[in-house]
Amino acid sequence: MGWLVRELPPRERGLRIAVLLVLGWALVATVLAIGPERIAGWFGVLGGAEAPAPPDAEAIAVYGPPVEVAALPGWADDDVAEALPALLRSCARLLAQPADRQLRPVELAGTVGDWRPLCGALRGLGDGAGEEEVRAVIEREVVAVPLSRADVGTAVGRPGEGSGWLRRIGLFTGYFEPLLHGSRRRSARYRVPLYMQPPDLISVDLGQFRDDLRGRRVAGRVQGRSLEPYDDRQAIVSGSLDGRGLELVWVDDAIDAFFLHIQGSGRIELDDGSSFRVGYAAQNGHPYHAIGRTLVDLGELTLEEVSLQSIDAWLREHPDRAGEVMATNDSYVFFREIRGEGPVGAQGVALTPERSLAVDRQHIPLGVPVWLDAMIPAAGADAPDERRQWLLVAQDVGGAIRGAVRGDVFWGAGERARAVAGRMAHRGRYWVLVPRGLASSP
């Protein structure tokens, strides 16, 4: 501000400073009155991948005051009956549990018993229910609770009454079910193994020991009386598991196998013409690192260019450096064969394309409906991004899905799913739909 007043006489200088202070306070008051979220929207906060949301893995979830579902943006425009199969699968999983079992975070989701009226009403509709029938049940049984994030150390007061800067805008990405080509036997073509879970890999649910670590796990190998880190990606790729009979199948492309680790599940087309699904079985305990960030740090891609498609292209164009770049992600996934419907998410139910969402279950329990308002990429690379508002169900998790406002949309299989999921890294916001008895009336 000094340059505005430095050359003025003392009296004018004081007047200019007073005016600037008044204008400053007026701007602050305007922001508070209108709301930071709305102002951010004017500047393109929901505008796409060119400005990805900052990571909020260490953020606190703040659950705002509930609103009627009918008041959600775009509620009347979504064919919510398309989400009924996903809802019924999650309800079947919930209803098989004791009524007094708590769904964490309990302050948001209560107990299994709290969800029985909604699930009972949905099951009573039957598989062929229409849009208006499903809409009526949801509007009657639940309300929508908005989620925000506040950085650790921010004074947030009581839930929903944040006194710090609360961010309801977060990052939403996409994933899909890839198709790989493989064989039950190793050969010159099929030389890249997909491993089953090693018997000496131990996974620990830290939430059983401390409430503030709920939803967090570590994995490793017991050595003596200590749990030590398991082999990282580089060690496993270099052969640390060779000779143990852990190969589930051999595939023909190391880059495709790498992306399968990121997606978590896929379909394998075998050389004898048959096929089967593989799904996530375990992970080596090392943190996930996005190699898109590696390529940005190396100056090979810009942040705006990063997508599954651009990363895949770079790896194939630089075969001499591809292994080194992939090795910067120490995380390694082990697989199992899946029979029947699939792919299967972390809740243990088959995922529904465009209606299943991976979340951070430290903040959102699996099996609950979520209303998402986000930008999504069009299937065509040159087409403009689109805004979509629709009903999904939290049915999966992911190594990169960390934070209070963070999600990963499952887009299904095929080229369209790959095209959309591979380029989705967009801003958005969401609400969790919870039974009316768990929230104060709107």
The tally of structural domains comes to 3
What's the CATH class label of the largest domain?
A: Mainly Beta
The CATH architecture of the largest domain: Beta Barrel
Given as residue ranges, the uncertain stretches (5+ residues, pLDDT < 50) are 1-11, 13-55, 155-164
| CATH superfamily label of the largest domain | RlpA-like domain
Q: State the total count of DSSP E strands.
A: 18
CATH topology of the largest domain: Barwin-like endoglucanases
Strand content: 25-35%
Largest sheet: 6 strands, mixed, barrel
**Overall pLDDT score:** 84
How many helices in DSSP terms? Answer: 13
Q: Would you mind describing this structure in some detail?
A:
The model is unreliable at 1-11, 13-55 and 155-164 (pLDDT under 50). This protein has helices at residues 2-5, 10-34, 36-42, 84-95, 106-109, 112-125, 131-141, 233-237, 254-263, 291-297, 308-317, 319-326, 415-423, and strands at 60-63, 67-68, 142-150, 170-177, 179-183, 192-195, 202-205, 217-223, 226-228, 247-251, 265-270, 275-283, 333-338, 356-358, 369-376, 386-396, 406-413, 425-435. The strands form three sheets. The protein has a six-stranded mixed β-barrel with strand order 4-17-14-16-15-18, surrounded by four helices. A six-stranded mixed beta sheet has the order 6-10-5-11-12-13, with helices on one face. Strands 7-8-9 form a three-stranded antiparallel beta sheet, with no helix packed on it. The protein folds into three domains: 2-34; 52-175 and 345-438, Beta Barrel (Barwin-like endoglucanases), CATH 2.40.40.10; 178-338, Barwin-like endoglucanases (Ribosomal Protein L25, Chain P, Beta Barrel). The protein is built from 13 helices and 18 strands. By secondary structure, it is α+β, with helices and mostly antiparallel strands. The radius of gyration is 24 Å and the shape is globular.
